[in-house]
Amino acid sequence: MKHKNIRKQLLDSEVIKALQSHDNLEDIKVNPFFYTRLQERLNSANIIERASFYKLIFGNLLAPVVLGLIIILNVITLVISVNKQEQNTVDRQTYIEEMTDDYSQSDSYILSTIDRD
Questions:
Q1: Residue 97 CA to its chain's centroid (Å)
Q2: Where would I find the H helices in the chain?
Q3: Cα(30)–Cα(38) distance, integer angstroms
Q4: Within 13 Å, how many C-alpha atoms sit on residue 94's CB side?
Q5: C-alpha atoms less than 13 angstroms from C-alpha of 69 in its C-beta half-sphere
Q6: Cα 89 from chain centroid?
Q7: The predicted structure's pLDDT at residue 75
Q8: Is the model's pTM score more than 0.90?
Q9: How far, in Å, are 35, 51, 60, 69 from residue 45 at the CA level?
């Protein structure tokens, strides 16, 4: 515990020395437009860095992946659609046959009932 306190005191004293040395520095005379130029240079470097990062991620890597996913989804959708269409065709044909059978039976039933009378 004492070791930590001593270390903290040494660190605090170094920080205080650094801050005091900063107070003793003379002001540097610079061009009035220096800060404007510096700010513009920092902004332009940041924009270029950000643009190259986005181009790398979204341009070179992400575009082929997204294109591949879209193609895969289209193929899956096509396969599902064709399967459902075939199933609907079979169901429709079965339904038509059943309806035909039902109505043809009802016609014969009606005819038989008329013949009885």
A1: 49
A2: 2-23, 34-54, 63-116
A3: 12
A4: 6
A5: 5
A6: 38
A7: 94
A8: no
A9: 15, 10, 21, 34
